[in-house]
Amino acid sequence: MSTTDAATAKPVWFITGCSTGFGRHLAEQLLADGYRVVVTARKPADIADLAAKGDALVLALDVTDSGQIAAAVAAAEAKYGRIDVLVNNAGIGYFAAVEESEDAATRRMFDINVFGLAAMTTAVLPGMRARRSGFVVNFSSIGGLRAFPALGWYNASKFAVEGLSEALWQETEPLGIKVMLVEPSGFRTDWAGRSADESAVTIEDYTATAGARRRALRTGSGNQPGDPVRAAKAIVAAVESKAPPHRLLLGNWAYDQALAKLDELRGEFTAWEGTARGADFPK
């Protein structure tokens, strides 16, 4: 590709977790729109069909494997010369009350949702810094802004993604690299039906709280109000916007819950303002 062609070609997107859900829908949307897309999954056979949908590079990638991360980034840069947009979509869920949660399962979720996301980001940042251009899209959740019973450890992983991303954009925006959190509510992505584990432990005292939420998440899978196709289009539009948001809420419930959380925080902070301000040394 000539220098002129490279300058006018559509951006190169690199997406993790494309076998199902948001990752697959986003990849399909981008390929249909003529973007160059690196589509990845732990099992390449699950995404092989995407190679026929446009200019796609299909790669095996487990975001908890540092060797696979390095190989995938190198392969993407070898084929396209750059990675313009990284989408950290790979992630899993876990349903359990905090006391019911199993250590191995929660640590695995953090390895994927937090440490895998961070490892992917640091792998692409050198190229973006060198070009003084780039965009990192980190999938969070409305559960990254407020917590719910049965999702405590999942919430904790997404709260971590929020904090990491907020620091990251303060570090990278002066270098020309943008960062955006995507915060969806319930979408028909089979997350609750396929991509989320559940504790084998149940404690009767939590039946009405965490237990009820567990049942609702499972039975509601496939009937969520969110349309993943519309979500994919919204993400592309936000990235291509001249003034992209740091946080992109997706879904009516996400929007309503986010505003409710803001109101709750302001109310409680205001009620305890005197105590908060009185904790400093007197002037």
From TrEMBL:
Pfam families the UniProt entry points to: adh_short (PF00106)
Keyword Hydrolase tagged: no
GO MF annotations in UniProt: oxidoreductase activity
Domain of life: Bacteria
Listed InterPro entries: NAD(P)-bd_dom_sf (IPR036291), SDR_fam (IPR002347), SDR_oxidoreductase (IPR051911)
Record keywords: Oxidoreductase
Keyword Oxidoreductase in record: yes
Stated family: Belongs to the short-chain dehydrogenases/reductases (SDR) family.
Protein name according to UniProt: SDR family NAD(P)-dependent oxidoreductase
